Structure formats: structure tokens, C-alpha cells
Amino acid sequence: MSSDLEGRVWQHKFKEDPTSFTARYNCNQLVWYAETDDVWAALEEEKRIKSGSRAKKIEMIEEMNPEWKDLAKDWFDD
User: Residue 26: left if φ>0, alpha if ψ -120 to 50, beta else—which one?
Assistant: First the structure.
């Protein structure tokens, strides 16, 4: 969960913390996201997603983004 999706994606893409999981494993593509103004709903959704199986997570991504395109590909200048 993040109140600043663009900023969070930037941190991952540019490996702001070189010791982070995303930097070590080069996880820097945004393939799924959801928006809400309700922080409590966001926290509950995050818990639900994290407790689910990998297969459910893949299904969720493929419903929104079947080609697994980087949804933030053009957000930043290189």
C-alpha cells in the first residue's frame, strides 16, 4: 500500500535502496494496482492479497493486465 504510487514505483525502478528485495531481484515493473481513498479498505485488501496463493495473485494480475505489460513504463525519463 502506498499513498504515492508514482513515488513508490520510482523507488523500485531506480533502486533507491540497493539492499531491498526489489533491487536484489530486479522487481521493477508495475503489473497491477488498485486505487481507493479508503485507507482501511486498502489495508484489508493488502492483507487479503498477501494471504492468498500465488495462483490467485497471478489470476488477479492477468484479469487486469493479461500481457503483463509494465503499467508505469512511460512514467519517468531514463
Answer: left
pLDDT per residue as tens digits for the range 31-40 = 999 999 999 9
Is there a domain that residue 77 lies in? no
* Residue 28 CA: distances (Å) to CA of 12, 37, 48: 5, 25, 23
Domain that holds residue 34: 5-64
- Cβ atoms of 14 and 21 within 8 Å: the answer is no
C-alpha cell at 36: 481507493
- The count of domains in the chain is 1
Residue 56, domain member (yes or no) = yes
